[in-house]
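tl;dr need the bound structure. longer version: we got a ligand (uracil) that a collaborator sent over and nobodys looked at where it sits. i said id run it. heres the input, straight from their email, havent touched it
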Amino acid sequence: MDALISPSADSAAAPESRVHVVCAEPSVANHFLAELRDVEVQRDSLRFRRNLQRLGEIMAYRISSQLSYVEKAVKTPLGESRSLHLHDFPVLATVLRAGLPFHQGFLNYFDQSPSAFVAAYRIEGTSQVQVQVDYLSAPSLDERVLILVDPMLASGKSLVQTYRAMLRFGTPRQVHIAAVIASPEGVAHVTREIPEATLWVAAIDEKLNEHAYIVPGLGDAGDLSYGSKL
Ligand SMILES: O=P(O)(O)OC[C@H]1O[C@H](OP(=O)(O)OP(=O)(O)O)[C@H](O)[C@@H]1O
Ligand SMILES: O=c1cc[nH]c(=O)[nH]1
C-alpha cells in the first residue's frame, strides 16, 4: 500500500505559532502586495485582480507544505520515478465578492479542489460591525482539509461567521484561513474564535479605523475588483 506522508500536526501549537505572515520576509509577494495597495496601480482593476490571484497562488504553495502526500510510481519516457502526489485536494471556500480573484489563485494550484461559496455582507447603519451570511453552497467538509480564503481580515466577523455557517456541511480534519491584509483586531478575533485554524496572511497592518476599514490597508477590495456598489 502507498505510504501517507504528512507534516507534523501543529493544532496543539500556541496561537501565535499558527499565524504565518508571508510578507515578513522579502519575496516577490511583497511586490504584488505593494501594487495592490498603491492608489495609482489600483486604477487598473485587471492588475488588481491579477495581483490578488498571484498572492493566492503563493499562499496555496505555502499551505501545500502542510498537506499530506502519497508516494507513487510515475512512468516517465525513460524510466520510473517515485513521486509525491497530494493525498486529497483541499476544499476551497471563499466569501463573495472580493474573495473571487484570491480564490482563483488557490484554484490554479489546487486544480482538482471542490469549491464552496458564501455571500456575506456588513449590515449598514449599525455602530458595531454586524455581518449577515446569506447564500452558502459547499460540498461535504467531513474529514476534509478546508482552506477558507478572503483577502481582507478586518473585524474578522465575516470569516468567523462564514466558518460557523459552513460547519453544517461537516467537520473538517484540518482548517486553514488565508487573507491578504489583516488587522491586529481581526487576527485576535479569528485565532480566539477558531483555535483549530492555521492563519496565513500576507501582512498584518496597523489598525482598524472608525468604519472598521484596515489602515493603511488598500481600501475596498470588492469595489477595486468589480466596481463600486450602490
Ligand atoms: O473582517 P470583516 O470586518 O468582516 O470585513 C471583511 C470583509 O470585507 C470585505 O468584503 P466587503 O464587505 O467589502 O464586500 P464585497 O467583497 O462584496 O465588496 C472582505 O472581502 C471581507 O469579506
Ligand atoms: O479594509 C477593508 C475592510 C473591509 N473590507 C475591505 O474591502 N477593506
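gonna send this back to them w/ a short note. Residues 45-64 form the longest helix (20 residues).
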